[in-house]
Design brief:
single chain; mainly beta; Alpha-Beta Plaits; Neuraminidase; eight-stranded mixed beta sheet; five-stranded antiparallel beta sheet; elongated
Length: 830
């Protein structure tokens, strides 16, 4: 630490509730398996195994399959799953997957019955056998497992920003360069949310009259590969309920809605390619679909094995597959089921660099997951709600790896439409897309390392008896939750930049970096200018990531005595300093004193732009946008919002932030009327980077007080992907409070919460300059200020945000007791 600086802790005394207007609170044994269907929210249950409606992409277990007690490891000497003997006791036959010690044992095993499916790499063969065949398999020393080839059921708007994907997108991390494999009910390949990015297709759809199963492949065969073979919008799948599941899952993982009206903005990894694999068959018997639910779609384990092998072949041939998504399953497993025939296929993919992401299931089990989620090498995903609570239907327990949103998720469905669905089926593709983003960001890390990153950087969700991380991609990437443009050293925590004007005419920019505990560290000099180079009183400071490289940059408008105005930017360098100012715009018609700049990514391209509220002398007002260029400079401005009368910037407190969660920063203005009324407006950003001419009205008060009692900043203090506005309010009697205003779905800021309060005399608003950022790197924005004491000392203070969006007691960071004056320092703020 440099001489003259120290970091200490505040007394942290709690303050009484300050006076003022009334406040509102804001907000075992292996069991016989039946074919698998996509996992979704259960609507009815016939047995212990959940029966899921095909309308939500889920199908019931057959009436014949009564699950036994939770699985325990089967004896090594008994490779045949015991319920199979009962199923064949009357002379019947059953589909089985036979796992052998090695592929050399397969030929002998195949003599026990008729071969239904063989595999290229796995020591597995699918047979149709009777009781004598089971006896023959049990007697063969090379056979290690015989289980039924069971058919199982299939198990975004706000969810994409909630998991931090929007922050990743603005950093240019969209999953480009990777592909995700969707093993499901096929994909509507020409849906506008997915079109142009389906790079491979195949159909594995077994036919078996004994199971009432027919093919969903376009040509009616059990296996078909090539363009159109997994298209669920055509062929046998088109008119079948439940076949929309795979399209919905694919949209969550990698949908792209750019330029399409009325759609979700995107899936998690809109830059990733998609591999569509149909692994379901059509079933017409209520014994498998459930009473009144036939026909339905279910997936045989053998079909999944064939598809997993297809993914492996694609990977080995150079297709950059990062994850295979299985939003399907059934059963109740409290321990790992590594005798499952899918274990070897999942292991092979992991060795090749491909994760297998599996939905946990929707039975609401508190200590178990379904199969294949029980395979120890699978990445198992449960579901959360919009407010980061466990979804009521989600399975959980010791086998659960991650959580992701799975309630009310809007995504693509066949017919070029969109629909909301619930289920761990919807949670799993959030993780699949996240892995594509991480592969782009960390090309040299193994897939096991990427999985570990998701586990160790997610938001902890605490529930009865356990804590499981909900994925937070922004945090995993090492970027602050709400202010990526103020991380000047790329360490994943926000920093603060200050301009210091020395008495002798010199000027310098200092960087105060955020520490692991959220305290701001002693500053370093990032730029210094000799006397006479700049006139501090003629600068308006801005900050943001102007070139989209993930490091915060600084800039300023400079007004000259000639009437000329210039815009300068200083790009951050890898060594922690700033480049010399570079001019990118000059004008002689603008008046420096009438310009009021704010920064944010207003067009959602990953680079921070500049919005200037121009307060004309004739009483009219306009908002101009300067779009950032890839080189960190700015294009010439254009205007969008304008008013000829009724507004004046001198009555406004203006901030920037993404209030509606669409990936574009908006403007928010607290306006103080001459009548004493106060209104909080949102100016939504458009795709062009301009602003909607119809602003949104949120909080309104006639008892708030004056502009001189208020300081405002924006930040995502609760980490939900949408920025709140925080107002520091001086009650006039010495007490102070920080009040936050939360946005509704459209971005209007209305819900009011007291986030922190101080007793009389503790702080003086006139002695602080407020800002916000994620100073401890936990994915939530915090509050910070530069504070000037009457003794001449200056100090950086932070208030760390809690999960509910309230603020902890302040903690003091770097302090200078002599030599620097508060009046000579200014903060670079967005």
């Amino acid at each position: 630490m440099k001489a003259g600086w120290r970091i200490d802790s505040p007394p942290g005394l709690p303050g009484p509730s300050p006076p003022g207007p009334a406040r509102r609170s804001p907000r075992g044994r292996a069991r016989a398996r039946i074919p698998e269907a996509p996992v979704n929210k259960p609507l009815w249950t016939a047995f212990v195994t959940a029966v899921l409606t095909v309308a939500l992409g889920a199908a019931p277990a057959p009436a014949a399959e009564q699950p036994s007690t939770p699985e325990a490891a089967p004896p090594a000497a008994a490779p045949v799953d015991p319920p199979l003997y009962e199923k064949t006791s009357g002379g019947g036959t059953v589909r089985v997957n036979v796992v052998t010690r090695s592929r050399t044992d397969l030929a002998a095993a195949a003599t026990a019955g008729s071969t239904l499916q063989s595999f290229d790499t796995l020591p597995v063969v699918t047979l149709k056998v009777g009781r004598s065949g089971l006896d023959a398999l049990a007697a063969q020393p090379g056979v290690v497992g015989v289980t039924e080839d069971t058919p199982v059921p299939p198990t975004l708007d706000r969810s994409v920003p909630r998991v931090g994907a929007v922050t990743a997108h603005v950093k240019g991390r969209t999953g480009t360069g990777s592909a995700v494999a969707i093993l499901d009910t096929g994909v509507a390949t020409r849906h506008p949310f997915l079109a142009g990015r389906i790079i491979a297709e195949a159909c594995f759809s077994p036919v078996d009259p004994d199971y009432s199963a027919s093919s969903l492949c376009p040509d009616g065969t059990q296996q078909q590969e090539g363009p159109g073979t997994a298209d669920s919008a055509t062929g046998p799948c088109a008119a079948l309920a439940g076949c929309d599941h795979g399209t919905h899952v694919a949209g969550i993982a990698a949908g792209k809605g750019t330029g399409i009206a009325g759609t979700p903005v995107s899936g998690v990894a809109p830059g990733a390619d998609i591999i569509g694999l149909q692994v379901f068959s059509k079933f017409t018997s209520e014994a498998f679909c459930g009473p009144g639910a036939a026909p339905c779609v279910l997936s045989f384990t053998s079909a999944q094995l064939a598809a997993l092998e297809k993914v492996l072949r694609l990977r080995q041939s150079g297709t950059p597959v990062i994850a295979a998504n299985l939003s399907l399953g059934t059963g109740r497993h409290t321990i790992a089921c590594d005798s499952d025939p899918r274990k070897q296929a999942i292991d092979n993919l992991l060795t090749a660099g491909v994760a297998t992401v599996v939905a946990a299931g929707n039975n609401g089990y508190t200590d178990a997951v379904g199969a294949p989620a029980c395979v120890s090498s699978a990445l198992v995903v449960g579901s959360t709600t919009d407010d980061d609570q466990l979804s009521s239907f989600t399975n959980r327990g010791p086998l659960l790896d991650l959580l992701a949103p799975g309630t009310g998720i809007v995504s693509s469905v066949p017919g070029d439409g969109y629909a909301a669905k619930n289920g761990t089926s919807m949670a799993a593709p959030h993780v699949t897309g996240a892995l594509a983003i991480l592969r782009q960001a960390h090309p040299d890390q193994s897939v096991i390392q990427l999985q570990s990153l998701l586990r160790t950087t997610g938001k902890p969700i605490t529930y009865t008896g356990a804590v499981t991380p909900r994925i937070d991609i922004a945090q995993t990437l090492g970027g602050p939750g709400g202010k990526p443009g103020t991380d000047y050293n790329s360490d994943g925590r926000s920093d603060i930049a200050t301009w210091y004007a020395y008495a002798d005419g010199r000027n310098s920019v200092h960087l105060w970096t955020g520490g692991a505990d959220g305290r701001l560290q002693a500053p370093t000099t990032a730029y210094a200018a000799t006397a006479g180079t700049w006139h501090a009183a003629r600068t308006k400071l801005i900050t943001g990531d102007f070139n989209g490289d993930g490091r915060g940059d600084t800039g300023f408008f400079h007004g000259y005595s000639t009437g000329e105005v210039r815009l300068f930017t200083q790009l951050a360098k890898a060594d922690g300093t700033l480049a010399a100012p570079s001019v990118s715009w000059t004008d002689t018609d603008w008046s420096f004193t009438l310009m009021n700049p704010r920064t944010g990514d207003f067009n959602g391209d990953g680079r921070d732009d500049i919005a200037v509220w121009y307060d004309y002398a004739d009483g009219s007002d306009k908002i101009f946008t300067f779009l950032a260029r890839p080189d960190g400079g700015f294009a010439n401005p254009f205007w969008s919002w304008n008013r000829t009368t009724g507004w004046t910037f001198s009555s406004m407190k203006l901030t920037s932030g993404d209030h509606n969660g669409d990936g574009r920063d908006d403007l928010a203005g607290m306006y103080f009327y001459a009548t004493g009324e106060v209104k909080l407006f949102t100016f939504p950003a458009l795709a062009t980077g301009g602003f909607d001419n119809a602003q949104l009205t949120g909080y309104t008060s006639t008892t708030w007080g004056s502009k001189e009692q208020t300081s405002t900043v924006s930040g995502d203090f609760d980490g939900d992907g949408r920025d709140e506005v925080a107002a520091w309010y001086d009650y006039g009697d010495g007490t102070d409070a920080v009040i936050t205003f939360s946005p509704g779905a459209n971005g209007a800021l209305g819900s009011r919460t007291v986030a922190w309060q101080a007793e009389a005399g503790r702080y003086t608003r006139d002695n602080l300059t407020l800002t916000s950022g994620d100073y401890d790197g936990d994915g939530r924005d915090d509050l910070a200020c530069l504070y000037g004491y009457s003794t001449g000392a200056i100090k950086m203070i932070t208030w760390l945000a809690q999960p509910a969006g309230t603020l902890n007691e302040p903690q003091h960071g770097a302090e200078r007791t002599t030599g620097w004056g508060y009046s000579q320092m200014r903060l670079f703020t967005p």
